[in-house]
Design brief:
This protein is of the alpha+beta class. The protein has one domain (about 1-115). It is built from two helices and two strands. Strands 1-2 form a two-stranded antiparallel sheet. The radius of gyration is 47 Å and the shape is rod-shaped. The mean pLDDT is about 80.
Length: about 120
């Protein structure tokens, strides 16, 4: 690296630039490198904070997903309970309604339907 700077110094001196000019150019070069480094560091810090925020949001979304799964499981469970209750109510309704007994017999090629009402069966 020293060879590079020596070659640069000799070339600049051949062009008629003095040591003061070389120091000024060196200072400007260092300043530009410092500015670029600062911008890169600022960008990295912002990127890191954005990543932290995204990580928190992802964790929150995963928590919400878990809660949604729990609610869906409860809904499926409640659907089963509702189906069982509906079936039970239908059975109870069939037991409590009076039933009609229908008998068929034929007379002269005509079908006659005879209906009699029965009292409802007692429930235990």
């Amino acid at each position: 690296m020293d060879i590079f700077f020596d070659a640069l110094r000799i070339w600049l001196e051949d062009m008629g630039l003095t040591t003061a000019y070389l120091l000024t150019i060196s200072f400007l070069f260092v300043a530009v490198v410092a500015l670029i480094t600062r911008e890169i560091m600022t960008w990295l810090v912002r990127s890191r904070s954005v990543l932290k925020t995204l990580k928190k949001q992802l964790q929150h979304m995963e928590q919400i997903e878990g809660e949604i799964s729990e609610v869906q499981a409860e809904i499926r469970n409640l659907k089963g309970v509702i189906s069982a209750l509906t079936l039970s109510l239908e059975r109870d309704a069939q037991r409590k309604t009076p039933t009609t007994k229908t008998s068929k017999f034929e007379t002269n090629k005509e079908t006659v339907v005879h209906q009699t009402k029965r009292p409802p069966e007692p429930t235990p």
